[in-house]
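TICKET #2291
ISSUE: user wants both folds in one file
ATTACHMENT 1:
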Amino acid sequence: MPLTHLSSPDHVAIAWRIDASVDRVWACLTQGEFLGQWLGRTTHGSVAADTEFVVDHGESYLCRSTVTRYDEPTRLAFTWLFPHEPESAVSITLESASDGVDLYLQHEALGALAVSYRDGWCVHLSYLEAAALGDPLPISMFWRLHGTIARLNAPVRAEQR
């Protein structure tokens, strides 16, 4: 996993290197057929400028989002609203690197949910990377991988107390 930076006192900030082109990673971020390979199945709308979309993260657990920034192919931002959680904001920036793409993800306004989201985003970005490389991971492995990442991040969690 080419994770290059991770922090989350009350938000998530992750830097991740993907050995693929910016256009390929952008397609995975925005095109419905790829969203299902890394984020969840789109049930409504699309990821495009000034649109709304709904993603099913499994068992009809729906996240509603509104695209707030769409600068193809380098910057995407959207709101993030799950039931029983306050609305938060996600931004993703892509920068070309000599050996692929540097992806920077920020998820703001999480408060106490930041630790859980940090682990979840690490899993989602693992799935995004696999999709961008043309070798999607089986969705059935999501929660196993999440458990592994949560255990690996446990020392970081303890340091933040």
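ATTACHMENT 2:
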Amino acid sequence: MENLENQNLSNIIDQAKHGDQEAFSYLYTNYFTPVYRYLYLRTGSKADSEDMVQDVFIKAYVSFERYSYQGTSPLAYFYTIARNTLIDHRRKKKAPVLDEDQLMEIADPANNPEENLLKEHAAEDLHKKLNLLPEDQQEVIILKFINELSTKEIADALEKSEESVRQLQSRGLKALRNIFNSHE
């Protein structure tokens, strides 16, 4: 895996598309956390998120030969699979929305208890307010500001136009601003 780190993403993707397990393992290692975080924030269940992220990468591995590299991160491809996996999961099991108590179970490398407590309260407050938005606005805001995807990557993942994503983001941020202002 060490020599893969020196290659560019295009070569790694090409190798993975041709069945190179080490190359796909490199992609798995680098994109597992953002996909897991996305699923966890959507489900609130650590166990379900772990199961689903494994399903996402199995589905990606099986279908990766059809992936078309466009010069951007393959994260949008993984998010598309994650989103569809989440939809299937919700159809099978009426999964509850994120429980605020579980939000902070996501590993945090900071060891400062005071800082962790402040982060926990801020995250709980944000989550409560974020849940007041329509689901499509929540999804765009999570992908943009928590998972740091570009507008194009979000559009690809959600199968929407970039303009639609910008509008959802703008409306969501405006609504969040109003929610925060009304709860001060």
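RESOLUTION: both attachments delivered.
EXTRA DETAIL ON ATTACHMENT 2: The chain has a mean pLDDT of 81.
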